[in-house]
Write a structure and sequence with these properties.
2 copies of one chain form a homodimer.
Chain A (H helix, E strand, L loop, with lengths): L9 H7 L2 H7 L7 H15 L6 H7 L4 H4 L6 H14 L18 H18 L4 H6 L14 H13 L4 H27 L24 H5 L1 H4 L4 H22 L12
Helix pairs in contact in A: 1-7, 3-6, 7-10, 9-10, 10-13
Chain A binds a DNA duplex through α5.
Chain lengths: 264, 264
Amino acid sequence: MTRSDDDLDPDLVAVNEGTAAAAELTRPPGLDRERILWAAVEFIDRHGLAALTMRRLGAQLGVEAMALYRYVPGREDLLDGVVDSVVETLFDNDDGDDLYIEDHSGWQDYLVRLAHGMRRIALAHPSVFPLITSRPPAAPWVRPPLRSLRMVESFLATLTDSGFSDQAAVAAYRAYSSFLLGHLLLEVTQIGAQVSLLDLPEGDPDVQEATDLSKYPSLLRTEPLLSQDKSAAEFEESLENLLDRLTGVLHEAKNSDDGSVMDL
Amino acid sequence: MTRSDDDLDPDLVAVNEGTAAAAELTRPPGLDRERILWAAVEFIDRHGLAALTMRRLGAQLGVEAMALYRYVPGREDLLDGVVDSVVETLFDNDDGDDLYIEDHSGWQDYLVRLAHGMRRIALAHPSVFPLITSRPPAAPWVRPPLRSLRMVESFLATLTDSGFSDQAAVAAYRAYSSFLLGHLLLEVTQIGAQVSLLDLPEGDPDVQEATDLSKYPSLLRTEPLLSQDKSAAEFEESLENLLDRLTGVLHEAKNSDDGSVMDL
DNA sequence: TGCGGCAGTTTACGACGTAAACCGGGTGGG
DNA sequence: CCCACCCGGTTTACGTCGTAAACTGCCGCA
């Protein structure tokens, strides 16, 4: 509705028909960890995180809640598993997706693929994504959204292989992480509440002016702009800007120290 | 401990002795919404969000859980109130803080003050901050971390008053938001788990290699770098870079359209 | 024929959020 | 003076949650 029809965002189409749906229709009746985890993902996508309950998840799988505990230590660990499952799809290239991260050409291509891979995940599972950002990490000193150690390793190795010093690679990791995290989280949370303000005219007219915008003129005036969705383009532009910065850092590395944090 | 002693991060010292502590020692026994909200903030700071319970919060206030419901509609709304309380401190200038946002000189100064204000909040309440990013917003189309309408209004008004077009101001709002959100969230979640990996040598030696790093050489090699805290400097650098971009956008605005999203 | 373990169920417990009924003590009107 | 009333807080109660522990039907193997 709010999204325009000329929306050709490539990170959106990629998964909608893709990964889980087809494989999930054939139902060998047995439980296992994988099935539970993906059922949880689907449940969260459909009903939100708050609605996810051991009992309800069991029900969706046609089983009592306690059955899940044979495969999952508890709810908290289940959520960790959900995050891992979702992130891990970055590396699974079942469907011949051209965004597969491993076969890249150069670190910039790698970072672009990685960014779009994460964005694809975020858009495919908007309600799961915030979990990625808030769960405690496997290793305490590396952080979201590049949660899995495998991913951080892949990141650092690619950059250092391309000539980045360890320091520069780590700095790049942090700059890149926070960019990706910020942008995707902002984008994803906007999705969940994409109703503009043309919907609250409902309700009893007593408390009508619950959100009275007359006190916020600029906000009122720019509302159509604010509710517009230019996410894809903004994402691309910010990403390119970041890559430019990193390229600069890499090339200036052989020169002397210029005081920048990037190449500490 | 892990933080070095030469840490003079200005956003850290600012609040530690500041706002809430002194006023909270004198205890007029009555309850009210404000007191409850700040008790919740303190509780979350101390024990984490998961531990916050109506019963426990009541106990901390020397009162039964149900007493809270006279001032707060429910737990969910309490959390909204917590977020608002914390964000609203950006505007309260009780303690003569020089970071007060309203009296700025120029939009760049404003953005710098705002950024440091938010960072101060994030560092003062690391466990509360993720809430800011995940709570549904007052108006659905504006989003964290600039949650309050007052804040968005202030942001937009300042920029447009400084010569930004509505479109540029909105684009700036989004770029700025996602930058701030990403950086602070990353920084804040690193705080909560700042134990490096020199602590898991504990535990029964059976499952010792729970996090076996031998498979992740780059990660192992750069661990001391990764666990280092250069957040303040990185923050400053990224912020300046963003401001430079925005300045460019502002000045090129009078020229023709160059295809950038920024000044669409 | 029996028997051990696998996969899932039943039962049970304590803690949660919160609706509803219940107080005690101050306050104002008769 | 007294009684009705309300205000601020408590008690009780219900349904749901996560999960420990005991239980059950069943299947493969001796």
